[in-house]
Design a protein that fits this description.
Its EC number is 2.3.1.274. GO terms for molecular function: phosphate:acyl-[acyl carrier protein] acyltransferase activity. With 113 residues, the protein is mainly α. It is built from four helices and four strands, in the order αααββαββ. It folds into two domains: 1-55, no CATH class; 57-106, no CATH class. The protein has a two-stranded antiparallel sheet. Strands 3-4 form a two-stranded antiparallel sheet. 5% of the residues are buried.
Length: 113
């Protein structure tokens, strides 16, 4: 978890997203070089897919805005239907009191929502 203002947070997020896209394209290009690397890509596909899914923002929907009186989930600007659905599910779980903490004005953990 990182706590920072919106400008710095967005700059860090965009940098990480750009790096991920760069490496993803590079890996795909490496697997497409020739028949042997394509075969290797086929064999590695399920593992790579599982790894990519762990970092897919559509799986999670968004991030909680800590410190708000009620659950607030910030979704990605290019969210599709799947990620919006995930964000709504995440907000419903937070509203039901499934472990999200609020933070009071002193910055210390507060009570559950």
């Amino acid at each position: 978890m990182a706590v920072c203002d919106g400008f710095i947070g967005n700059a860090i997020l965009k940098t990480v997203e750009g790096a991920a896209q760069f490496f993803s394209a590079g890996i795909k290009e490496a697997f497409m070089k020739n028949t042997l690397t394509k075969l290797g890509g086929i064999l590695a596909k399920s593992g790579i897919t599982d790894f990519k899914r762990r970092f897919d923002y559509t799986e999670f929907g968004g991030v909680p805005i800590i410190g708000a009186a009620k659950p607030v989930i910030k979704a990605h600007g290019s969210s599709n239907a799947r990620s919006v659905t995930s964000a709504i599910r995440q907000a419903m779980m937070a509203a039901a009191g499934s472990g999200m903490l609020s933070i009071d004005s002193e910055g210390s953990p507060g009570k559950d929502f």
